[in-house]
Amino acid sequence: MTDYAHINQLLYEGNAREVERLVRAALEEGRPVDEILNEGLIAGMSVVGEDFKYNVLYVPEVLVAARAMKAGMAILKPLLVADAVNNPPRGTVIMGTVKGDLHDIGKNLVCMMAEGAGFKVVDIGVDQPVEAFLQACREHNAHIVGMSALLTTTMPYMKVVIDAFQQQPDLSAVKLAIGGAPVNKMFSDEIGADGYGPDAPSSVEMFLKFVSAR
Amino acid sequence: MPSSPSTPATRAEVESVLRCAEPRRVPLFLPAIYEHKAWFIGSTPSAISRDGSLLARALLAEYEAIGPDALAVGVDVYNLEAEAVGCKVSFYEGTDTSIPGIKPGNHIVHVGDDLSQARLPNPQKDGRMPVNLTAARQVRRALGDDFWLRGAISGPFSLAISLVGAEALFLACLDQPDWVRSVLDYSGRIIREFAKAYIDAGAELIVFDSQASPELLSPSMYEEFVLPVTQELVQWSATQGIRDLPLIIGGNTTPIADLLAQTGANNLLCDFTGDFDVWEQTCRQHGRSFRRNISPRLIETGTPDAIYEVACRELRRGRNVPGFIMGTAVVPFGTPTENVVAIKRACIDSASW
Ligand code: B1M
Question: What is the separation of C-alpha B202 from the centre of its chain, rounded to a whole number of angstroms?
């Protein structure tokens, strides 16, 4: 009998091998793929996110939990893809760190948690110019574009990206979100972003709101 | 608004503050200026970081414009050691003022590598170490022996991140702690080579280890991995004649303030997000001096008057604290000079309170 709370706990502890084994066992038992994904993996990762937010967990523990989540996902992914009609991704998110900025630890955590929440995430990396955001957004037909900046000198580049998106009629429905330590709500409003994520779990909540409002 | 800064502190005055003895009438002012140095000579971070004479010119221009009580030789301070043993640093050309760095994927050490025989740098010829050494020599010659000139070195954990990559190293902290100790040991050996060369060039040292910040690493991990190697580095530095050693970790380090005091470094950093009261208590208890920072965003975009006000507030809090030093967070490239000078002015004015 599948015990999702146990899978959540193993994921929290970063026990990739056991998470993988129990995901397989749940499938063998005939549990639906989306149930395993939501109750086993996504629920576990959201506890990790919350505890990270409140400094119960630190970056290494989050990474190890995300690795366990990935191990479980690797088994579910082919099934989810095969059954894309019943289990579509929640939405597609492009994530990148803006031009001139090489910080990616925070951005990567946002990517992991967004994936953990069922989004398709395309990470375009660090030091990315506006053209890269536009191109990735078109190529993947994305719903959300997330930008990260950790330097006060690179924050203004987020406005460059937002301005460019606002000039593309075909991308007018794309939600533009920003984050990174020096960024705040006021700055986000100032530059015309659709939203600001103070941390990874809150960013995922914001993404969910964006897609549910579609 | 007077813009001519007062005479910088003598070495004896600096020592007195760092060792929490006699306070200085005008509190020490140690702004954190790295890439912004280029601004003083109309250059770019990438350009000054690759040319020793240009870097020396930028340092001397910083000295003239701001009147700090010390200078730090270094621009992209976390890259030099890793680059000297083979990591590729990305630079920006022309007028691009972005700051050089090691992009993900350009790390040279892989988790599990045997590092016992790994290559050590020759600071006289590897990477850009010679650039910093040239600058240190030229600035020392220009400013004389009584000025506190520091060569920037990485802390062992930050260098390990540059060598291995952040995520790989963090995962290894949980999966392979013994191997992490070996990479930290290797980092320590590299750093000591660079440090020795700085000392020979006439500079003292300043250690940067922001990647060991509690924003990334838990206090217990700091204690387990970082504290021992940092203590070693501090003790080794003392054997090389460096008794006053600043250890700089940005971000809110309040949860590890006590551990930082235990490293033995006698000049610590309480960033603008840190809890002043906890820091004051910790530093009093351990006899450490500490630098209080002001937000980089305020320094970059505030008016000189607003910055002056905040500086006065911090100076009032610190006036009776032994070893209190006024500082700034990393001054963003392009910050107007009068904004930084406003803090210096507050230091000077506070002498008459
Ligand atoms: C929708 O989109 C979204 C939504 C939410 C988003 C989002 C996007 N992005 C982030 N979020 C949010 O969710 C995340 C998870 O909850 C959070 O992400 P964060 O990124 O905020 O948080 C991470 C989980 C943890 N935090 C971090 O990862 C940043 C930690 C600190 C220590 C830091 C690091 C690690 C590094 N650094 Co840098 N670095 C510092 C940082 C100081 C500190 N203690 O915070 C900071 C940011 N660095 C700074 C500096 C100055 C620099 N750094 C530099 C380099 C580096 C390293 C490469 C060595 C390394 C990065 C390694 C890497 N792979 O990322 C240089 C710049 C290089 C460049 N061109 O980018 C250099 C310029 C130093 C130099 N002179 O060389 C300072 C900036 C000051 C300023 N004026 O802006 C700094 C505050 C340190 C300091 N106290 O001075 C949220 O913000």
Answer: 17
Three-state secondary structure call for residue B326: strand
CA–CA gap between residue B74 and residue B72 (Å, rounded): 6
| DSSP for A92-149, written as a single string | EEEEEEETT----HHHHHHHHHHHHTT-EEEEEEEEE-HHHHHHHHHHHT-SEEEEE-
Q: What are A176's strand-pairing partners? A: A145
User: Position of tokens 């090691």?
Assistant: B102
Neighbouring C-beta atoms of residue A20, cutoff 10 Å:
18
B 103-122 near A (Cβ less than 8 A): 103-104
Asked whether the beta carbons of residue B104 and residue A59 sit closer than 8 angstroms, the reply is no
Residue A122 forms beta bridges with which residues? Answer: A94
Angle at B341 between CA B336 and CA B343, to 5 degrees: 115
A190 CB-contact burial (10 Å; exposed 0-12 / middle 13-18 / buried 19+): exposed
For residue B304, the distance in angstroms to the closest alpha carbon of chain A comes to 18
User: Which numbered atom of ligand 1 lies nearest the CA of B271?
Assistant: 88
Decide if B219 contacts B260 (C-beta within 8 A). no
Q: Is A146 in the pocket of ligand 1 (CB under 6 A)?
A: yes
Please check whether residue B314 is in contact with residue B292, taking contact to mean a CB–CB distance below 8 angstroms: yes
CA-to-CA separations, B37 to B40, B73, B100, in angstroms, rounded? 6, 10, 14
Look up residue A33 and give its two tokens.
């793929």
**Which atom of ligand 1 is the closest one to the Cα of A201?**
16
- According to DSSP, the residues that pair with A123 across neighbouring strands are A95
> pLDDT (tens digit, 0 to 9) for every residue of chain B, 353 residues total?
333 446 899 999 999 999 999 888 999 999 999 999 999 999 999 999 999 999 999 999 999 999 999 999 999 999 999 999 999 999 999 999 999 999 998 999 999 999 999 999 999 999 999 999 999 999 999 999 999 999 999 999 999 999 999 999 999 999 999 999 999 999 999 999 999 999 999 999 999 999 999 999 999 999 999 999 999 999 999 999 999 999 999 999 999 999 999 999 999 999 999 999 999 999 999 999 999 999 999 999 999 999 999 999 999 999 989 999 999 999 999 999 999 999 999 999 999 99
Find, among B103, B116, B329, the residue nearest to B208 by Cα: B329
Tokens of A46: 């959201």
B290's enclosing H/E stretch is strand B289-292
CB contact under 8 A, B104 and A14: no
- Residues A96, A149: contact at Cβ < 8 Å? no
Chain B residues within an 8 Å CB radius of A182? 296-297
ipTM of model: 0.93
Query: pTM for this structure?
Result: 0.95
